Amino acid sequence: MQTVLGAGGPIADELVKELHRNYTKDIRLVSRKPSKVDDTDELVAADLTDAEATSRAVAGSRIAYLTVGLPLDSELWERQFPTIMRNVIDACAEHGTKLVFFDNTYMYPGTSTPQTESTPFAPGGRKGRVRGELATMLIEAVRAGRVQGLIGRAPEFYGPGATKSYTNSLVFDRIKAGKRPFVPVDAHAVRSLIWTPDASRALALLGNTPDAYGQTWHLPIDPNRQSYAQLIEIAAEVTGREIGYTVLPMLAFRLGRHFVKPLDEMYELVGRYRDDNIFDSSKFAARFPDFQVTTYRQGVQRILAE
């Protein structure tokens, strides 16, 4: 049995598809209101902030993947995420279940310094501090021998379907709708973006690779990083039309955060768009040289063809 805790999002759904394709049909999906990806999926409704419910959800699982997402709300993150992580670690320890944690990069410094698995945590705000706390909780539990676990860490998403990210909503969704895309802060800073199905395929691979445990892994990206200006140029080539863009300066976010809550929640992260973002996934590439990464051109073509 392999269990996905936090089923229903684009990462979780693609993860389930990959597990079905290549690893097992014995899959349990856990969320408050889970729904099947495949007919053979087992559904368990559970609130992971409840320790007993979490234990029941994990029981009988060989591997559990923690892919829970919460709305971008700092107070909610501080209140719920540490509880969820604590409950999941305790449940995995109780049932002898391996734990694969899908993580992000909010705890890293928002600078142009390359980010590797050994980059020290230097969060720039509340959400980054929460993410650093979660990763540290799991690392300490692994070092103490309580659980076998690993972290699969991803930079900002872009992807097909219902992928939720600033890149999708501000750039590609607007291009698909025939609207002028918005670029946060700087159109020429280089971005590291992960194609969401690649993240899910890599997470499944790591979870089913015994020697991957006890480590943090940067999930694979196309190392030929592009700026937003370059991505929009690719989109223009794919669609055969001219596409301009509007840069949203820091001042717009600084003013808007006082009136629009989503902009206030985003503000902690906006500074990361000012400089190049160099997320280094060479460790994964060296260990899994046959893994085929989706190129940025392939990704853009796929999004705009939907």
From TrEMBL:
Domain NAD-dependent epimerase/dehydratase: 4-212
Signal peptide: none
Domain of life: Bacteria
UniProt cross-references to Gene3D superfamilies, sorted A to Z: NAD(P)-binding Rossmann-like Domain
Species name: Nocardia stercoris
UniProt name for this protein: NAD-dependent epimerase/dehydratase family protein
Pfam family, one: Epimerase
InterPro entries: Epimerase_deHydtase, NAD(P)-bd_dom_sf
